[in-house]
Amino acid sequence: MYLALTKDVAIGYIYLLICLHTFSIHKEQINMTTDNPYKPPATEIHDNLGASETGGTFQDGIDGNYDFLIMDVIKEAWEKTYGVKVTLLGAFLVYWLVLLPVTFGLDFVFATIMGFPGFDSNSIVVIILISLIQQSILAAILYPFIAGIMMVGVRRSVDLPVSLSMVFGYLVYTIPVAIAAILMTILTMIGFFLLIIPGLYLSVAYLLTIPLIVEKNLGSWQAMEASRKAITHHWFKVFFTYFVMSIIMMISAIPLGIGLIWTLPMMVNVGGILYRIMFGVEEAR
């Protein structure tokens, strides 16, 4: 979701964020907490982590005992942008500042490799393999930062305090997150290369993998399977929720991209709300 940004789009967004300083934007109170909010529960996929009025339970998510209305999720995501825009826009700025040099660096390295004498850079197999390796490395580097952005949405979904420092707050999970990012990238790209539909299915089914790793303390493959099993029960609803949000974001970008100030945080909130509905948030119990 977040990874599929081109260099040109990323540069444009950074320019947009810099320009925001010329606007009179009201200050939003950003609460911070020094307590550790992430209590690691049992990691077995079929463990019942307990019920909560603030969302579903882990077992409910796996069993598909949840439901939602697309427009209700989008409406709530809009309402919860208040108080979180500055945090999330700052988080995206940090993400893009990491994305740009990493992307340019990987492009340079692989362009150099493909320029070696005797290297068949026109081979479809070679092109696919290079693309797969490059995207896997990119995912492994960026997803630990994406974890922080996604957790802002998860915490906001239950009105827990958030802060810009959360972008770096989950780097302790770098190894399992990076492993999951590589596996998701490989499996999804193979699915797209083969028949497209399997890749589309997996790209949606794995959407909640990262917060499951950091919020439920699951292993990489456990989290991938938990996300896939839970989302599969209402795959089309999840797909069309993000489809509608994508249309909203495209429309919001038309007037000089100013609308993205609201719709980028909305997109993050959508993920957090869906996570809460399916699995619940442990600290809010």
UniProtKB/TrEMBL annotation:
<keyword id="KW-0472">Membrane</keyword>
<feature type="transmembrane region" description="Helical">
    <location>
        <begin position="82"/>
        <end position="104"/>
    </location>
</feature>
<keyword id="KW-0812">Transmembrane</keyword>
<protein>
    <recommendedName>
        <fullName>Glycerophosphoryl diester phosphodiesterase membrane domain-containing protein</fullName>
    </recommendedName>
</protein>
<feature type="transmembrane region" description="Helical">
    <location>
        <begin position="124"/>
        <end position="146"/>
    </location>
</feature>
<keyword id="KW-1133">Transmembrane helix</keyword>
<feature type="transmembrane region" description="Helical">
    <location>
        <begin position="167"/>
        <end position="186"/>
    </location>
</feature>
<feature type="transmembrane region" description="Helical">
    <location>
        <begin position="192"/>
        <end position="214"/>
    </location>
</feature>
<feature type="transmembrane region" description="Helical">
    <location>
        <begin position="235"/>
        <end position="254"/>
    </location>
</feature>
<dbReference type="InterPro" id="IPR010380">
    <property type="entry name" value="DUF975"/>
</dbReference>
<feature type="transmembrane region" description="Helical">
    <location>
        <begin position="260"/>
        <end position="279"/>
    </location>
</feature>
